[in-house]
């Protein structure tokens, strides 16, 4: 969990029902950038030496994995989050998956949703890639597990990272049961999922709030 005070403060703004669309969208962008910093902290560092314009050697570092990143954005709520992530992973290759929870067929007795995937465009994934699948809400895990099933057909990455803003214990356990090698980054783990599949206390419908469609 990302407990950086700035990430927690931004999340608090996102949770607030009075936060308007533009501020909400900007908050997701800022969280994407912070999440990028956190992910970089987990990457291996190589010590290198460079020569400065003074003709003197200086010790520094290189993060080789920075150049081997594939980011998948799950439409639609991930778009602002990815805008922030690419500020950190500027050389990332990018994929898009359009996924929708089929709310019409959701029965109140079950937590999980059917997921309609209508578009998948993913670059080839190589063995030394870090795959980052961005989706701000990890509620029942129905979306992320359906997305991973499609995306992992494009190759086997070195790491699979899920970048979310709010997750639930139920969703995390489901993802880790189906994809035990995945690593979940999140800013909060909320206690409940209501009968309509919303995270409680949550922040509402991330897609609707970011794109002004409620
Ligand atoms: O873990 P889950 O229970 O699957 O829920 C999470 C998904 O729900 C939302 O998508 P939605 O279908 O509302 O699409 P949207 O992003 O276009 O609003 C959200 O953006 C996630 O993708
Ligand atoms: O609370 C939730 C759950 C899924 N998707 C959202 O946007 N919000
Ligand atoms: Mg939605």
From TrEMBL:
Enzymatic reactions: UMP + diphosphate = 5-phospho-alpha-D-ribose 1-diphosphate + uracil
Keyword Kinase among record annotations: no
Cofactor note: Binds 1 Mg(2+) ion per subunit. The magnesium is bound as Mg-PRPP.
Positions annotated to bind uracil: 199, 204-206
InterPro entries for the chain: PRTase-like (IPR029057), PRTase_dom (IPR000836), Upp_A (IPR034331), UPRT (IPR005765)
Listed cofactors: Mg(2+)
Domain of life: Archaea
GO-annotated molecular function: glycosyltransferase activity
Binding sites annotated in the UniProt record for GTP: 26-30
Sequence ranges assigned to domain Phosphoribosyltransferase in this UniProt record: 2-212
Family affiliation: Belongs to the UPRTase family.
Protein's name in the database: Uracil phosphoribosyltransferase
Organism listed in the record: Vulcanisaeta souniana JCM 11219
Gene that this sequence comes from: upp
